[in-house]
Design brief:
Elements (H helix, E strand, L loop, with lengths): L2 H13 L19 H15 L12 H10 L1
Helix pairs in contact: 1-2
Length: 72
């Protein structure tokens, strides 16, 4: 499964964000994702993709998140 598809699924399953709202240009703020949600999202991504996410700085859009994950 592509990284973007995984993110869409996680956001939909965990935060009830409609899949059609999750685009590469969507900001976390526009999706209603706060810092607590982001922390939970990070843990879920690490588990789903079996990666060590680290502590990235400056990620504001879904596309930036996908690019970061794909670079690991």
């Amino acid at each position: 499964m592509a990284t973007m598809d995984t993110i869409v699924t996680i956001l939909n399953d965990n935060l009830d964000i409609p899949a059609d709202k999750v685009t590469e240009d969507a900001t976390f703020e526009s999706l209603g994702i706060d810092s607590l949600d982001m922390a939970e999202l990070t843990c879920t991504i690490e588990e789903e993709l079996d990666i060590d996410f680290g502590e990235p700085e400056g990620l504001t859009t879904v596309g930036e998140l996908v690019t970061y994950i794909d670079s690991l």
